[in-house]
Amino acid sequence: MDTMLMLKALILGFIEGLTEFLPISSTGHLIVFGSLLDFHSKGKVFEIAIQLGAVLAVVFEYRSRFTNVILNFGRDRAVNRFVVNLAIAFVPAAVMGVLFSSVIKGYLFNPISVAMALVIGGFIILWVEKRAATRPAKVLTVEDMRPRDALVVGVAQICALIPGTSRSGSTIMGGMLWGLERKVATEFSFFLAVPMMIAATFYDIIKHRDLFTLADAGLIAIGFVAAFVAGLVAVKALLRFVSRKNYVPFAYYRIVFGAIILITWLFDWVKWTS
């Protein structure tokens, strides 16, 4: 296996893990840095597959919660409600993804589309946080969430199909707009990532199975492990951060990062490729 390709896979794995749960778009960052590193996988299989590594970091961090769900599903009312809420939130984006993922990948998986989504999303986060500062949250724990709360988060997640929008950003901001407390929206976004990313990963792997080679498997393994390690760090850090701060710094990061990409494109300083 080419050493440079291995290094690129390692870098992109760390980027995926660090950005998957932050409201700054992991897919967008993979597209941008993939362009900078001249790393392009067939059918974007690598980028999709390594997301599973980051998602398993959530499973590990909340292993007692998921173990409780497995052992008590069907017997415990609170567990049943939690699973139903995840199922409800899962459906909207899953259906839209199956219907439109090919079109979206064909037209929007490029650095310029990502940059525009980053900037627009940054301003939306600023607006949501300003609004949240004047309106007390109505849902204070994940256990208090009702099916309609989960449905709102699930509908908001549809926006994440546009690269650069951010799955976590869409679900967290959608939840906060609806009245979920910031940490509740963040944790539910973590939990929702598990079925969503597992389904997306295996759907893409099966759909593009003819594109895989032995070399692809090695690169995916490297990216997968890197994403898992970085994901653990990101989940722990974000939970500590949102317990004391808001998402405004991430909004400014999105706006500046997106603006830099657009400026370098407009002045032809960087040859951005999809």
TrEMBL record:
The keyword Hydrolase applies. It comes from the Bacteria. The chain crosses the membrane at residues 9-33, 45-62, 82-101, 107-128, 188-206, 218-239, 251-270. GO terms for cellular component: plasma membrane. Its main location: membrane. Belongs to the UppP family. HAMAP family: Undec_diphosphatase. This is Undecaprenyl-diphosphatase. The gene is uppP.
